[in-house]
Automatic annotation (TrEMBL):
<dbReference type="Pfam" id="PF09346">
    <property type="entry name" value="SMI1_KNR4"/>
</dbReference>
<dbReference type="InterPro" id="IPR018958">
    <property type="entry name" value="Knr4/Smi1-like_dom"/>
</dbReference>
<feature type="domain" description="Knr4/Smi1-like">
    <location>
        <begin position="21"/>
        <end position="133"/>
    </location>
</feature>
<dbReference type="InterPro" id="IPR037883">
    <property type="entry name" value="Knr4/Smi1-like_sf"/>
</dbReference>
<protein>
    <recommendedName>
        <fullName>Knr4/Smi1-like domain-containing protein</fullName>
    </recommendedName>
</protein>
């Protein structure tokens, strides 16, 4: 999968759903604020539809730009007091569902944490792979 994945999703939804992206500047400010360099595929998602995207399989989840600052804190809070490591340095939480599970970017992949577990699990090798799993489920 590549950039065309986002373009295809965007084109399929732009006329029937509310889809709104972020500016490049907003993404750059977000990176500086959190001290990370986001992967290009995730940056592309944010620019095309990071502010508003109707992704049916993400109903009940927080994943859009207006929530990203809060997600970083919520991820840390979910881990606090548990006997496990903190979020890795240079990681970035991209989605939280119902306050008990989240996905984050780190070290070239997408990792998962579920409340009650003691370790992070690498689930996807890229944001694009994660996105396709949630947008085009089999």
């Amino acid at each position: 999968m590549n950039e065309q994945t986002y373009e295809a999703f965007y084109q399929a939804h732009v006329e029937t759903h509310n889809v709104l992206g972020c500016s490049e500047n907003e993404v750059s400010v977000l990176e500086r604020m959190h001290g990370v360099r986001l992967p290009e595929d995730y940056r592309r998602f944010l620019v095309l539809m990071g502010r508003e995207a109707d992704i049916r399989h993400l109903i009940g989840s927080h994943y859009l730009f207006p929530q990203l600052n809060d997600l970083q804190q919520w991820g840390k809070e979910l881990l606090a007091g548990r006997q496990m490591q903190e979020l890795p340095e240079n990681s970035f939480v991209i989605m939280m569902h119902q306050g008990y599970q989240f996905y984050f970017l780190w070290n070239g992949g997408v990792y998962y944490f579920l409340e009650g577990e003691t370790e992070f699990e690498r689930r996807f090798d890229s944001f694009t792979e994660w996105f396709c799993c949630y947008t085009f489920p089999e």
